[in-house]
Amino acid sequence: MRLAVLKERASGETRVAATPETVKKLIALGLSIAVEAGAGAMASISDAQYREAGAEIAGDAASCLAGAGIVLCVQPPAPAELAMVPRGALLIGTLGAMGNEALVQQFASAGIDACAMELLPRITRAQSMDVLSSQANLAGYRAVIEGAEAFPRGFSMMMTAAGTVPPARVFVVGAGVAGLQAIATARRLGAIVSATDVRPAAKEEIKSLGASFIGVEDEESSKQTGAYAREMSAEFRAKQAALIAETVAKNDIVICTALVMGRKAPVIITAEAVAAMRMGSVVVDIAADAGGNCAATVPGERIVTPNGVTVLGYRNWPARIGVAASGLYARNLMTFVTSFWDKEAGAPKLPADDDIVKGVLLTRGGAVVHPNFQPQAAA
Ligand code: NAD
Fold first, then answer.
1. Would you state the pLDDT for residue 200?
2. I need a surface site. Which of 23, 167, 357, 376 has the fewest CB within 10 A?
């Protein structure tokens, strides 16, 4: 069976869905691999490295996709490339399926069996395939590094003959995978760190990393027991806004990572809170792709507010650390393929009753099979 690795075409995307390491492992399954020329260039992987690993380099998307039974991608292929994916092929990537019924329908019409890896269930068996976690981890790290770059002081306390430079104060909003990595990174750089989350379990995790917990603890937050946070009530949000505004004004750098699966990101840092921040402070909003946690965020942009606060609202933070992000992403996808590999058939086998398959498989044999995209799910 032939597996194709496409070059990503989305603006700002630096990642690639396979590395020489994963190519070798996929070949060991019995697959032949075609990599589109230049696919790894933005992730510092040359065509020669893929060739050395045993892949064939295809000059363009059409020759890469010809005869492919499996296609790996980071973002969904553009319509022109999608039209070249052979019927019956398995497409695996972060397909941005939630809220995009039209795209899911397109996969079905094209006869492509599409696996949206962002919908992977948060179960132990799936951890090594969890693209959201691997990418969020690196995004959290990168957010702190870019926040430090934009902050015109230092992070750690420095005692010099000319006096002391105080440590930076960092406040992390949302303590999931990205937020916890942001806390750890800011601590390693010497900052004094605090963080907030609505899930009660996050409090101990925040404290175990040496940061202090700041948050509204009431009956509503005590009910946040799932792996993903639910949207909070207007009453909770008002209480949280007051506490956050007070906290933000005392901090130098705010790292925003709060998300609610499948929804717009909650706005937690109000315009008033930003207006009360000191000149030179920085807000890094890695929730910008989902609209952002900060009212001042302009998705895709770096702006400076009238009171001198730099707000980094870049999109696609994993792409800003593309080499590491490609490495982990490629391993996630390779693990998915190997886990469902049927040796005798020499092809992947996705049992319809498997929890992972039920979570990610959008379409099969020309039909939409995912429960979230059935007519009754939309009603
Ligand atoms: P996420 O990206 O969905 O959200 C980021 C964080 O924002 C979450 O911690 C969430 O609680 C928080 N948040 C949402 N609304 C908020 C608000 N109004 N105010 C403050 N914070 C808010 O989350 P994630 O990084 O995917 O992780 C969610 C949880 O799932 C974590 O506990 C993580 O450890 C767990 N997890 C489990 C597995 C597994 O078991 N395989 C894998 C990955 C993550």
1. 86
2. 376
What is the 36 CA–ligand 1 centroid distance (Å)? 35
12 lies in the same domain as 121: yes
**Residue 130 catalytic?**
yes
Question: Within this chain, do residues 302 and 328 fall inside the same structural domain, yes or no?
Answer: no
Task: Evaluate whether residue 250 is within a structural domain.
Answer: yes
pLDDT in tens, 329-368: 999 999 999 999 999 999 999 999 999 999 999 999 999 9
Nearest CA to ligand 1 atom 23: 176
Q: Is 283 helix (H, G, I), strand (E, B) or coil?
A: strand
Integer Cα distance of 202 and 297 in angstroms: 25
Q: Distance between CA 267 and CA 185 in Å, rounded?
A: 24
Which residues does ligand 1 sit against, CB inside 6 Å?
Answer: 122-124, 127, 130, 132-133, 136, 173-179, 196-199, 202, 227-229, 232, 257-261, 266, 268
Identify the domain containing residue 94 by its residue range: 2-129+321-365
Same domain as 182, residue 294: yes
pTM > 0.70: yes or no: yes
Q: CA 175, CA 179: separation in Å to the nearest integer? A: 4
User: What pLDDT, on a 0 to 100 scale, did the predictor assign at position 47?
Assistant: 98
